[in-house]
Amino acid sequence: MPRVFRVMKKDVDGLPIVSATGLGVRSGIDVDLDPEGYVLVNCKGMSVAPNWRDINVERLPKRLRAIVPGARGSNNTSCFRSGSGAFGRGVFAKGLILEPDSATHGNVAPVLSVPFDSYTADLAATRPDWEKDEA
Fold it and tell me: Distance of CA 9 to CAs 19, 56, 95, 132, Å?
């Protein structure tokens, strides 16, 4: 599984919160749906980066300004990491693939066109694999 980072709110158990802006996606913004509600396979998906330092400073928590000047995101969020492999196109988890679109950004997308709820359930199933990592 490729190593990826994402800024998300942390739940009481220390893992990311499953939500449209956390461990999840927004229909019509992060992914496109066909008329039947299936996610289109078009490289869109949940936004991730190869390193938390590559994430837009608007999203990085302010407390990390000493490491990344200009960080101005909410301190109610944390940087999470999942996976350990190279940041390249490949299987991310069951039903999911990493689709890099640059050296510093990619999307975790569905492998096949599936109902929106199935795709978000596949993303949510990765929850135990995410760890807070701001080192």
Answer: 9, 16, 24, 10
Domain housing 93: 4-131
> pLDDT digit string (tens) for 67-125?
999 999 999 999 999 999 999 999 999 999 999 999 999 999 999 999 999 999 999 99
Q: For 57, left (φ over 0), alpha (ψ -120 to 50), or beta?
A: alpha
Total tally of structural domains belonging to the chain: 1
SS3 content of the chain, % helix, strand, coil (to 5): 15, 35, 50
- Residues facing residue 102 across a β-bridge: 105
